Amino acid sequence: MTAVREERTTDELRALAERAGRDLEDASALEILRWAVETFGERFCVTSSMEDAVVAHLASRARPGVDVVFLDTGYHFEETIGTRDAVQAVMDVDVITLTPRQTVAEQDAEYGPRLHDRDPDLCCALRKVRPLEEGLRGYTAWATGLRRDESPTRANTPVVGWDEKRRKVKVSPIARWTQDDVDAYVAEHGVLTNPLLTDGYASVGCAPCTRRVLEGEDARAGRWAGRGKTECGLHG
Ligand code: SF4
C-alpha cells in the first residue's frame, strides 16, 4: 500500500460516514464498495477472517488488487490458512497478513499456557484487537463481512458507520444480507469458502474457541461457547 495522507478531519469523516450510512442503506453491496473505493482510494481495505472470500471478491470487483487484511492469531485452523493462501493465489487482491507482537510460545511463557481458556478477553486483546489497530493505521476506512442476521449483537450494523474506537469509517457492505444471499453469491461467482463451513461450522474463528453449531443455534453460537463471550473486541 502506498501511504496517502488523509486530508479530512475526524469530525468530517464521522459526518461523512453517518451520511453515507443513511444514503447507502438500500444500495447493493457492490455500490457500497464502489463508494468506499471512490471516496478513500488506497486508504481503504477489506478485512477477512477467511471464513469465506465474499467481501474480498466484491471489493476486488470494485477495485482490482484491493488490500485484504487477514489477522493470523497463531491459533487458526489449517483450513483457514489454506483459504488465505488460495485467496491470494486465485483472486485479484493483495492479502496482507497481520500477526500479534508475540508468538503463541512467547505468550505462553509470559501469561501461562491456554490463556484463551482462562482470560479470552485478554487473549483476544493481545492477538486480535491490538494487531488490527496497528495494522489499520495506514487506512481511513475498512470493510468487514458483518451481517445483521448473524446474532443479536450485530442486528443494528450500519452499512457504513463510524468506528469510534479506531476513529475510522467502517463499511459493512453485506450487513443486510442473509445466509441465503451469501450462499447464492458464492454459487454464482464460484467464491472460495473455508472447507470447515461444510463440516458443521457456521462461523470460523480460532481453533481453541470455535466449535460446530447445533441444529437451531445462531451462526455464532459456536464461538467461545460456554464462556459468556460473543465478540472478540474487533467490532465492539
Ligand atoms: Fe485467543 Fe480464542 Fe481470542 Fe483467538 S479467539 S485470540 S484463541 S481468545
UniProtKB/TrEMBL annotation:
Coiled-coil regions, chain positions: none
Binding-site list for [4Fe-4S] cluster: C123, C124, C206, C209
Record bears the keyword Lyase: no
Phosphoadenosine phosphosulphate reductase domain residues: 49-211
Enzyme class: oxidoreductase
Principal location: cytoplasm
EC number: 1.8.4.10
Gene Ontology molecular function: phosphoadenylyl-sulfate reductase (thioredoxin) activity
Active site (record annotation): C232
Pfam families in the cross-refs: PAPS_reduct (PF01507)
Family the UniProt entry places it in: Belongs to the PAPS reductase family. CysH subfamily.
Function of the molecule: Catalyzes the formation of sulfite from adenosine 5'-phosphosulfate (APS) using thioredoxin as an electron donor.
Protein name in the entry: Adenosine 5'-phosphosulfate reductase
Organism in which the protein naturally occurs: Streptomyces prasinus
